[in-house]
């Protein structure tokens, strides 16, 4: 879900609306800019999953951050919500960065996906695998982790200190945000 749409839904949550009221607002006002109600409901369902990881401190923090940092915080939220994305970041993207290999290839994604032994991943059709790849790269682009879906040049984010503090007890998330062990130790001990 694009950043601006996500921020709008967070604002509705901050106003005290229930998930059901937010869903109604989304359907009435088409905040997600989708045509079909079924698509709106599916996308909103994903947002509800992510919302469960957003506590009051998260919501307060995201309203205070500059836009680029909001993207990083929302990406951290995705890493919390979807462990497979966190694994991809720590097992593939951060390793490439450590090895001064700054291009993320499509083959890197498929090698990662093929290395996962879960029955749900192994049973994915080729079409579904392509769609997952497409969505993954789009998320990385929107978060500012890669320059574009086409070029896929890895960009190490410059994280806001408040994001680092917020995730100080979740070092895996910081690693997923491409901080290395030394940077984590230097920032939070």
From TrEMBL:
Pfam families: BrxA (PF08849). This is DUF1819 domain-containing protein. It comes from Calditerrivibrio nitroreducens (strain DSM 19672 / NBRC 101217 / Yu37-1).
């Amino acid at each position: 879900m694009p950043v601006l749409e996500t921020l709008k839904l967070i604002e509705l949550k901050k106003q005290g609306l229930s998930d059901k009221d937010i869903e109604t607002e989304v359907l009435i006002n088409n905040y997600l800019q989708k045509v079909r109600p079924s698509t709106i409901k599916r996308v909103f369902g994903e947002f509800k999953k992510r919302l469960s990881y957003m506590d009051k401190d998260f919501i307060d923090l995201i309203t205070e951050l500059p836009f680029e940092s909001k993207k990083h915080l929302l990406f951290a939220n995705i890493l919390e919500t979807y462990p497979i994305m966190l694994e991809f970041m720590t097992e593939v993207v951060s390793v490439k960065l450590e090895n001064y290999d700054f291009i993320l290839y499509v083959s890197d994604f498929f090698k990662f996906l093929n290395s996962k032994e879960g029955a749900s991943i192994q049973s994915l059709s080729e079409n579904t695998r392509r769609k997952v790849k497409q969505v993954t790269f789009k998320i990385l682009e929107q978060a500012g982790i890669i320059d574009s879906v086409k070029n896929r040049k890895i960009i190490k984010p410059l994280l806001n200190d408040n994001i680092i503090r917020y995730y100080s007890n979740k070092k895996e998330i910081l690693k997923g945000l491409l901080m290395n062990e030394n940077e984590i130790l230097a920032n939070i001990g």
